[in-house]
Amino acid sequence: xxxxxxxxxxxxxxxxxxxxxxxxxxxxxxxxxxxxxxxxxxxxxxxxxxxxxxxxxxxxxxxxxxxxxxxxxxxxxxxxxxxxxxxxxxxxxxxxxxxxxxxxxxxxxxxxxxxxxxxxxxxxxxxxxxxxxxxxxxxxxxxxxxxxxxxxxxxxxxxxxxxxxxxxxxxxxxxxxxxxxxxxxxxxxxxxxxxxxxxxxxxxxxxxxxxxxxxxxxx
Length: 219
Ligand code: NI
Description:
By secondary structure, the chain is of the alpha+beta class. Helix content is 34%, strand content 33%.
C-alpha cells in the first residue's frame, strides 16, 4: 500500500523547520549510504552530530506518530533512522532499495516528508517502481508519502531550486503488508459505522475481531 498523508506538519511548523535547516550544517549524503547505493546517491544530509538535528528528528517522529491515519495504516512499533536531506543543482538519488535493517530496527515501510513548497523547485520527483510500471510523487510541503521499503525507488535530478525533505523508516507491529491492509480496512469500516450509527452490535463485533487479529499478528 502506498499512502499519502496530508498536513502532517502545519505551514507554521514547516516555516520554522525550514529556517532551522537553512542555518544548519550539511554533509555529503554518502556517509549513510550502503556500499552499492553510494554510487548513485548525490545529495546532502543534515549533520547528525549537531544538537539541532536531534531536535528536528524528535519533532518529525512525534508528528508522524501522533497522526491517526499513520497509526491506523502503519501500526508503528518504531519510527526510526529519520534524516533530513537536501537536493540542489542537479543532485539526485538513483535507483536503489533500502536496507532491511537500520540502527537495529527493521524497515518495513519508508516515508518521505516533503518540506519544500511545490513551486520552489523543479524536478526532484520521488519515483517508485512496480513490476510493470512506475509512479512519480511530489507532494505539498508538510505532506508525507509512506511506501513499502522493499520497492525500488529513486529521486529524479533537481533542475532548479532546493528540495528539502525528511525521510525515515518504520518497523511495524505487523510485519506483513497484506495483514496491515486487512487491519486498516477493518478499522476504517468500523469508524465509518460508528459515525453513521453509533456503537452498534456490528461495531462491537468488528472491534472485537480487529483486536483479536492484532493479538494474533502483532510482534
Ligand atoms: Ni531509499
